């Protein structure tokens, strides 16, 4: 009962833990999706205001009366006209420039004229006859040229803000302006001047309040507004409806350090929870860029995180109460269930003690027909089997000594076989040593017999004998070389190897051989076969050996098929070499890789080729298998790992 109780409680706690995480993550992810959509709506409001300023400046610059006044130089009438346009449309600035970009008229301060604005990015675009509008950072000196009121409106002291990045300075003097510019053209399209206008966003709450009204519709939670919007100049709040602890707009406060790094420094959006002035919000931030693509600020929308956290807590409280009731109900069921199980088990415990004392006739009396009854019946049958087994055990005791003697004799035979195997291994080492010792004099015999044969004319009676000496000496040297290769195999020089390239090189070598003139070669290469880490020279030796064996098995007439592939995990590659020859008998297949075993005629092979191939593939950590049927052909399948343990 205690074990079951622990499991039930543990499962309940784990369910509550993961359920809490799942519910909270689901609610937060839905909130993030909503705030991302809300940010798109905020950009619509922001761009709508920017386009409105652009349309005002464009239509004013296109009026014929403005062109006439500019040509005639009637400054007083121009001033009254442009001042009325600025006032009626709620612009903070409306300035007239000549075609070189020098100020002809400022509606807010007519006395400040003549300064050069040609380096202004918006003005330089308008001088190229483009109508443009973009956010722009305006310095304090430029604001003072327009009016001291605008300079004072932009001036802000940094207010210390929790979780904000530190600042070396403590005051912002520049301002952010939505600025538009349009060229003034005559009837022929020549540039007469430029008209610029803009709205200063510092302490201007029209855009952020409109975003809040459209997107969040004055929603509140426990007396607090849930939705907020802000325009940042760099990381400074210059226009916001986020409230501080006193209930005032939090103008002058700073951006959270992590958000500043992501949005301002890296230029990436931030859609996640963030600390805003004095509380946590589900937020979305995106950089505001000027006409040159430089980041000058941030547009933000966010919702209080607390409503979503409280909703998740309420759901989890409900789940916790339901889980507690379920645990209590399960405990009641567990108590009655275990009682029905424990009592019969106690009877069985008594029975086991009696049986342990040697009373194999004791039986368990259980009348139920459930699993416990089945267990009791099985227990009684087990006791009966124990009695029978005990009798058999006595019989086995009588024959045990004889079986031990038989097994001892078998072990003696196995030991004899092991001794014989060690002798054969020693003989193999001796053969390899002898082969090494006779290799050099055998090479001398071959060289001198070649020289004597070259000096002996074909008509000489010893010419044929010399040819036989050269042939047989060459065969001996091949046997010695094969014996050395088998006894002392070289370690593979592993490198990245293309299997298809190796096969093609083998075929290019064989296609000039007379044996291959009537053999049709079919290639079935796998696409994107990975390279392997292997010794290309040794693998080429294996492929050439099998290909030549296949050609000889077809007696120079048939189809040779090369097929490659790799398993789905990509850990191994396979190479199949098939022929349509006479096949291999079952009795010969068992000895196929034994050294010195060959089915060829005497003098046609040493019987070491496939044994050496087998050793090379083993050194590479691969396998080599053979399928063959007499009269139908043979298939060698080589499987190699992509990377060996030594690569």
Summarize the structure.
The protein folds into 3 domains: 28-321, LuxQ periplasmic domain, N-terminal subdomain (Beta-Lactamase, 2-Layer Sandwich); 364-488, Signal transduction histidine kinase, dimerisation/phosphotransfer (DHp) domain (Helix Hairpins), CATH 1.10.287; 491-641, 2-Layer Sandwich (Heat Shock Protein 90), CATH 3.30.565.10. 51% of the residues lie in helices and 21% in strands.
Textual characterization of the structure:
This protein folds into three domains: 28-321, LuxQ periplasmic domain, N-terminal subdomain (Beta-Lactamase); 364-488, Helix Hairpins; 491-641, Histidine kinase-like ATPase, C-terminal domain (Heat Shock Protein 90, 2-Layer Sandwich). The strands form six sheets. A five-stranded antiparallel β-sheet has the order 2-1-7-6-3, sandwiched between helices. Strands 11-10-14-13-12 form a five-stranded antiparallel β-sheet, sandwiched between helices. It has helices at 2-61, 64-72, 75-89, 121-127, 140-146, 148-154, 206-216, 257-265, 306-356, 371-455, 463-487, 499-510, 536-553, 586-589, 609-619; strands spanning 93-98, 103-106, 132-138, 156-157, 171-172, 175-185, 191-200, 220-221, 224-225, 227-233, 236-240, 270-276, 279-289, 295-304, 495-497, 518-524, 532-534, 557-566, 572-579, 623-629, 633-641. By secondary structure, the chain is of the alpha+beta class. It is 51% helix and 21% strand. The protein is flat. It contains 15 helices and 21 strands.
């Amino acid at each position: 009962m205690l074990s079951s109780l622990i499991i039930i409680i543990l499962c309940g706690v784990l369910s509550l833990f993961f359920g809490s995480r799942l519910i909270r993550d689901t609610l937060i992810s839905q909130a993030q999706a909503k705030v991302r959509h809300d940010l798109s709506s905020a950009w619509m409001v922001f761009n709508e205001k920017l386009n409105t300023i652009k349309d005002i400046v464009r239509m004013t610059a296109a009026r014929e009366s403005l062109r006439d006044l500019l040509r005639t130089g009637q400054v007083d009438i121009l001033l009254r006209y442009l001042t009325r346009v600025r006032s009626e449309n709620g612009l903070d600035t409306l300035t007239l420039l000549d075609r070189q970009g020098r100020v002809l008229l400022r509606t807010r301060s007519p006395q400040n004229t003549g300064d050069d604005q040609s380096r202004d990015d918006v003005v330089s675009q308008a001088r190229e006859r483009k109508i443009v509008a973009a956010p722009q950072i305006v310095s304090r000196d430029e604001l003072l040229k327009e009016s001291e009121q605008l300079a004072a409106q932009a001036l802000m002291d940094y207010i210390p803000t929790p979780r904000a990045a530190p600042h070396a300075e403590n005051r912002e003097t520049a301002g952010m302006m939505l600025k538009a510019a349009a060229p003034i053209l005559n009837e022929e399209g020549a540039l007469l001047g430029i008209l610029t206008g803009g709205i200063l966003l510092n302490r201007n709450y029209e855009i952020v309040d409109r975003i809040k009204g459209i997107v969040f519709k004055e929603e509140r939670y426990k007396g607090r507004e849930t939705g907020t919007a802000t325009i940042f100049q760099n990381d400074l709040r210059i226009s916001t409806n986020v409230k501080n602890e006193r209930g005032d707009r939090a103008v002058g406060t700073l951006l959270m350090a992590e958000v500043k790094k992501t949005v301002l420094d890296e230029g990436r959006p931030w859609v996640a929870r963030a600390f805003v002035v004095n509380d946590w919000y589900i937020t979305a931030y995106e950089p505001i860029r000027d006409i040159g693509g430089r980041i000058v600020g941030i547009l933000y929308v966010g919702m209080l995180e607390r409503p979503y956290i409280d909703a998740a807590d309420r759901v989890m409280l409900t789940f916790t109460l339901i889980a507690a009731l379920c645990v209590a109900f399960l405990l009641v069921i567990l108590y009655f269930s275990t009682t029905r199980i424990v009592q019969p088990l106690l009877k069985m415990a008594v029975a086991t003690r009696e049986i342990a004392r040697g009373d194999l006739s004791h039986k368990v009396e259980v009348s139920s027909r459930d699993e416990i009854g089945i267990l009791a019946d099985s227990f009684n049958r087990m006791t009966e089997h124990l009695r029978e087994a005990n009798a058999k055990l006595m019989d086995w005791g009588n024959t045990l000594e004889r079986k031990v003697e038989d097994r001892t004799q078998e072990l003696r035979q196995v030991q004899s076989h092991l001794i014989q195997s060690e002798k054969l291994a020693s003989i193999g080492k001796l053969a390899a040593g002898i082969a090494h010792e006779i290799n050099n004099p055998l090479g001398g015999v071959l060289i001198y017999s070649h020289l004597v044969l070259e000096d002996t004319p074909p008509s000489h009676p010893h010419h044929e004998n010399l040819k036989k000496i050269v042939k047989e000496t060459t065969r001996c040297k091949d046997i010695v070389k094969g014996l050395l290769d088998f006894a002392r195999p070289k370690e593979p020089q592993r490198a990245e190897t293309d299997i298809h390239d190796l096969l093609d090189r083998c075929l290019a070598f064989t296609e000039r051989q007379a044996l291959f003139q009537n053999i049709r070669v079919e290639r079935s290469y796998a696409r994107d076969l990975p390279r392997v880490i292997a010794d290309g020279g040794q693998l080429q030796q294996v492929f050439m050996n099998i290909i030549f064996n296949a050609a000889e098995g077809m007696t120079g007439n048939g189809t040779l098929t090369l097929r490659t592939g790799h398993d789905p995990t990509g850990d191994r590659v396979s190479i199949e070499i098939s022929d349509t020859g006479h096949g291999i008998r079952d009795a010969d297949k068992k000895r196929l890789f034994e050294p010195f075993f060959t089915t060829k005629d005497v003098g046609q092979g040493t019987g070491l080729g496939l044994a050496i191939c087998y050793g090379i593939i083993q050194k590479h950590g691969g396998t080599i298998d053979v399928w063959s049927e007499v009269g139908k052909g043979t298939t060698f399948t080589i499987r190699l790992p992509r990377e060996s343990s030594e690569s």
